[in-house]
Write a structure and sequence with these properties.
The complex is a heterodimer of chains A (about 150) and B (about 70). Chain A is mostly helical and about 150 residues long. Chain A is about 80% helix and about 0% strand. Chain A contains five helices and no strands. In chain A, helix 1 packs across helix 3, helix 1 runs antiparallel to helix 5 and helix 4 runs antiparallel to helix 5. Helix content of chain B is about 55%, strand content about 10%. A two-stranded antiparallel sheet of chain B has the order 1-2. Chain B is globular, with a radius of gyration of 11 Å. In chain B, helix 2 packs across helix 3. Chain B is mainly alpha-helical and about 70 residues long. The chains are: A mainly alpha (about 150), B mainly alpha (about 70). Chains A and B meet through helix 1, helix 4 and helix 5 of A and helix 2 and helix 3 of B.
């Protein structure tokens, strides 16, 4: 196997792994939000609440970084550049578009919901970020899986 | 397939005895990208289309064709 093909095989393996992992991560992430909203006092003053919200924030930042960067931060530049080829970039742009639309729709929905049942700004931000990020991750994972499927 | 565009990538690649992975390595993309171009799921940039044509030794208009 030549150097180029070896690099390509590594990129293929990592890219497939990401395509499998992203939707799973998105489902786990969104599932975690259900438990947050199931307990409305989640943003209360207890230490455990701060831990919960901090964990969500850290996870959100990590997932956002995974989504908007090339990812695979502990791998060499050559393989990272190859994984981030133009099909991946197109899939990422599409996923970010879907995530943006999901965040906007959530914002509109919460705006109207607030007329009937006021909610703290923190809950609204939490919902908008979670749904926007979750939708983008699922879309990216789906597009990547479809791209890997043999034609 | 993108509306109005067909390609002969799979046919020409197979005719030269190349796998998707080998062609991908020649043009510096992943096999996934070659796969999506072949299936018409993804329309490549001009630069990638030219690289694919060069790797297969054909002019780009022999690789990508407009319908009609």
């Amino acid at each position: 196997m030549t150097g180029g093909q070896d690099l390509n095989a590594r990129a293929e393996r990592l890219s497939r792994r990401r395509a499998r992992l992203l939707p799973v991560l998105a489902v786990l992430y969104l599932g975690q939000q259900i438990s947050y909203f199931a307990e409305p006092s989640g943003a209360g003053g207890r230490a455990v609440d701060y831990v919960k919200v901090s964990a969500w924030l850290v996870l959100s930042v990590v997932l956002l970084a995974l989504l908007i960067t090339k990812g695979f931060w502990f791998h060499g530049r050559a393989v990272r550049d190859l994984i981030d080829d133009e099909n991946t970039r197109a899939n990422r742009h599409d996923a970010l578009r879907v995530g943006f639309v999901a965040a906007m729709l959530t914002g509109i929905f919460l705006y109207f919901l607030d007329q009937f049942e006021p909610m703290p700004a923190r809950h609204a931000v939490h919902a908008i970020m979670s749904l926007g990020l979750g939708a983008a991750l699922i879309r990216f994972g789906m597009l990547e899986r479809r791209a890997h499927r043999e034609g | 397939m993108a509306e109005g565009l067909t390609n002969r990538l799979k046919e020409l690649r197979a005719a030269r005895g190349l796998t998707q992975a080998e062609l991908a390595a020649l043009v510096g993309v992943t096999r996934k990208t070659v796969n999506t171009v072949e299936n018409g799921v993804f329309v490549p940039s001009t630069i990638l289309a030219l690289k694919l044509a060069r790797a297969l030794g054909v002019p780009v208009e022999a690789l990508f064709l407009l319908d009609g």
